[in-house]
């Protein structure tokens, strides 16, 4: 597969959907929405409460929770709720460093990405059997259905588990069985294997070799874990080999790392999508490129607040990214740790950034056009969005 051809197809559909969303959302022009939002934010700069819109009788109310959407940035291990953590610990005889559920929740105060990862990896110790991965994944799909998710492209971190002696097949089979059952719920899916960037590239190559016998279950490869000091270029050979085997390519970049990491992900790894990417705004030339090529950015607002990428949601750059013409989507990242699934992320940015219906529809449309679905499936989902926003 040529990643440049795949990126071009995604860019073309992202570009088309930006225009279509403005035409169908019945919320006025994009320029009016931008001016309205900026005025609201400016007038409330000193207020601690989020800005609100006065109702407009010309606007058709949209249920933005059930608005059809895809989730493209979701770590399945990050959906492990504390209650399930304790249940699996009892089942598998794993001793946790916390006495009860509430003490776990109190520990979810993170100073940065690494402080989160320390707890995240410790919690993964309770995932041992194929049944555990199946139940974890199915629980996420059932929860996502409530948020209007029709398609999910799910990350998993095999190295986190194989390092503990869990067989690769145990992990991928459990997750994949749940994804297959999820289709009966009405949620299609793709599975993306992430390499841990804070480990040596040789270990990532070993993980890729373990994945090859399960190639039919895995759509793409990605790069996650501690970003600072671990540039994408470190994994050039691993991703080149993955592309030879036809995997799609995504990569976390520009969350804590500099804008140059985004460039490396694109130009060295051949990434078709950038996960996070919020620091792109520090580099105007990069922003221009991302906008021109319509390279998707899978943004995770509540995660960015929880991990101190931004100090509060009202200061999140999502609105600026939309105004810059970027193909951005909203996702939940690790929702069990960051205080909200994808619907709650939509609700939160709507309130905090005064996003209008047109912008929420644009985000939903972007989520499908930026996915690895085929064009026919994308068209079906976009038509469902159009039906959802039409007056009864």
Explain this structure.
This protein is an alpha/beta fold and 392 residues long. It has helices at residues 3-24, 30-43, 82-92, 101-106, 113-123, 130-145, 158-162, 168-185, 201-211, 236-244, 259-267, 284-293, 301-306, 318-323, 335-338, 342-353, 357-369, 375-389; strands at 69-75, 149-156, 188-196, 220-224, 248-253, 273-276, 297-299, 328-330. It has one domain: Metal-dependent hydrolases (TIM Barrel, Alpha-Beta Barrel). 51% of the residues lie in helices and 11% in strands. It has an eight-stranded parallel beta sheet. Helix 12 (284-293) links the parallel strand 6 and strand 7. It is globular, with a radius of gyration of 20 Å.
The gist of it:
The chain has 392 residues and is of the alpha/beta class. The protein is 51% helix and 11% strand. The chain has a single domain, classed as Metal-dependent hydrolases (TIM Barrel).
Shape: globular
Mean pLDDT: 88
Q: What is the CATH architecture term?
A: Alpha-Beta Barrel
Main sheet summary: 8 strands, parallel
- Number of separate structural domains: 1
Kindly state the percentage of residues in helix. 40-55%
Per CATH, the class reads Alpha Beta
- End-to-end Cα distance, whole Å, is 43 Å
The portion of residues forming beta strands comes to 5-15%
Helix segment count?
A: 18
What is the third-level CATH name, the topology? Answer: TIM Barrel
Taken in chain order, the helices and strands follow as: HHEHHHHEHHEHEHEHEHEHHEHHHH
Q: Tell me the Rg in angstroms.
A: 20 Å
**What spatial order of strands do you see in the largest sheet?**
1-2-3-4-5-6-7-8
CATH superfamily: Metal-dependent hydrolases
Q: Strand pairing plus helix content: what structural class?
A: alpha/beta
The total count of strands amounts to 8
Uncertain segments are: 19-60
């Amino acid at each position: 597969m040529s990643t440049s051809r795949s990126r071009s197809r995604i860019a073309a559909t992202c570009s088309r959907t930006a225009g279509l969303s403005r035409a169908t959302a019945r919320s006025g022009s994009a320029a009016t929405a931008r001016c309205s939002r900026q005025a609201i934010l400016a007038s409330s700069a000193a207020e601690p409460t989020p800005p609100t819109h006065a109702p407009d009788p010309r606007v058709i109310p949209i249920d933005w929770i059930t608005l059809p959407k895809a989730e493209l940035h979701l770590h399945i291990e990050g959906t492990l709720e504390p209650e399930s953590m304790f249940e699996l610990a009892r089942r598998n005889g794993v001793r946790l460093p916390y006495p009860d559920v509430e003490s776990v929740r109190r520990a979810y105060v993170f100073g940065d990405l690494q402080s989160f990862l320390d707890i995240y990896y410790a919690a993964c110790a309770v995932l041992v059997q194929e049944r555990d991965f199946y139940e974890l994944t199915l629980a996420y799909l059932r929860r996502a259905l409530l948020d209007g998710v029709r398609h999910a492209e799910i990350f998993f971190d095999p190295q986190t588990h194989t390092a503990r002696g869990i067989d690769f097949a145990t992990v991928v089979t459990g997750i994949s069985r749940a994804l297959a059952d999820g289709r009966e719920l009405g949620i299609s899916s793709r599975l993306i294997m992430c390499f841990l960037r804070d480990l040596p590239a040789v270990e990532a190559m070993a993980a890729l070799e373990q994945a090859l016998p399960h190639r039919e279950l895995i759509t793409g490869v990605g790069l996650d874990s501690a970003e600072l000091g671990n540039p994408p270029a470190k994994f050039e050979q691993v991703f080149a080999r993955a592309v030879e085997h036809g995997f799609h390519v995504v990569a976390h970049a520009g969350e804590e790392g500099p804008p140059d990491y985004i460039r490396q992900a694109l130009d060295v790894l051949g990434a078709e999508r950038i996960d996070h990417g919020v620091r792109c705004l520090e580099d105007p030339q990069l922003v221009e490129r991302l906008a021109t090529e319509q390279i998707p950015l899978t943004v995770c607002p509540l995660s960015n607040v929880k991990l101190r990428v931004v100090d509060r949601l009202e200061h999140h750059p999502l609105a600026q990214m939309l105004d810059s013409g970027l193909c951005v989507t909203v996702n939940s990242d690790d929702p069990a740790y960051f205080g909200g699934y994808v619907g709650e992320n939509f609700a939160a940015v709507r309130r905090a950034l005064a996003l209008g219906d047109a912008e929420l529809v644009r985000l939903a449309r972007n989520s499908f056009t930026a996915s690895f679905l085929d064009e026919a499936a994308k068209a079906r989902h976009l038509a469902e969005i159009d039906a959802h926003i039409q007056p009864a």
